[in-house]
Design brief:
Number of domains: 1
CATH topology: Rossmann fold
Bound molecules: guanosine-5'-monophosphate
Number of strands: 10
Number of helices: 5
CATH class: Alpha Beta
Low-confidence stretches: none
Strand order of the largest sheet: 5-6-4-3-7-8-9-10
Distance between the termini: 8 Å
Radius of gyration: 16 Å
Helix content: 25-40%
Length: about 190
């Protein structure tokens, strides 16, 4: 069992509606050693790929993307949520339905930070139905860049995102996969 899986079982809180609260180590308070280990783990899995950029979505994906990008020695670009005045109009845009908030939001990446030469690793904290990943794949397509892989901290295996992305032929690597959860009980998928 890796450090993230141990932390999920020790500290994760299952809320009603299929939401796992991990803000004591990942989403609000952040445990740096755990995040850095996650970056090394993603690097170990994807190291043979010529990644030029790690992409994520603000805010929770940023520390994990940083730790991963440090190992590859490439920049991180995070998609911004909503159209802020300081983002400008020269952006690639996609709509994402938020599973946790129950509403759609726009994600934007400035065109100058994602080009047709980029070979992207997308990293995020959770995979549920794959809406965020689909939005990022849409933006990568608009830029003419290529997606080489997706690294997820916590995949909720009982939702559709994993099957959707693997079915598209994406190299999807999740550090922890939750097969089932209910308040007080989390069942992780076994692996070697
Ligand atoms: P998806 O886009 O795959 O449907 O959902 C993934 C996104 O929703 C993640 O970026 C994450 O922010 C949020 N999310 C989905 N499920 C959970 C959950 O169980 N707990 C938390 N904290 N966030 C979640």
């Amino acid at each position: 069992m890796n450090a993230l899986e141990t932390m999920i079982l020790d500290k994760g809180l299952v809320l009603e509606g299929g939401i796992l609260k991990v803000d004591m180590f990942l989403n609000h308070q952040i445990e740096p050693k755990l995040i850095m280990a996650m970056g090394r783990d993603f690097h170990e899995h994807f190291k043979d790929k010529p990644i030029t950029k790690v992409l994520t979505v603000e805010a929770s994906g940023i520390p994990i993307a940083m730790a991963t990008a440090l190992e590859f020695d490439v920049p991180v670009v995070f998609a911004k949520k909503g159209r802020h005045k300081n983002v400008g109009n020269d952006v690639y845009t996609s709509q994402v339905y938020s599973y946790t908030k129950g509403e759609s939001y726009e994600i934007n990446i400035l065109k100058k930070y994602l080009t047709a030469d980029d070979r992207v690793l997308f990293v995020d904290d959770f995979l549920a139905n794959g809406a965020a990943a689909k939005g990022i794949i849409d933006i990568i397509g608009q830029a003419g860049a290529s997606l080489l892989g997706i690294g997820i901290a916590i995949e909720k295996g009982f939702q559709d995102g994993g099957a959707l992305l693997r079915g598209m032929g994406v190299d999807l690597y999740s550090l922890a996969i939750i097969d089932r959860m209910e308040p007080g009980k989390i069942t992780l998928r076994e692996h070697d």
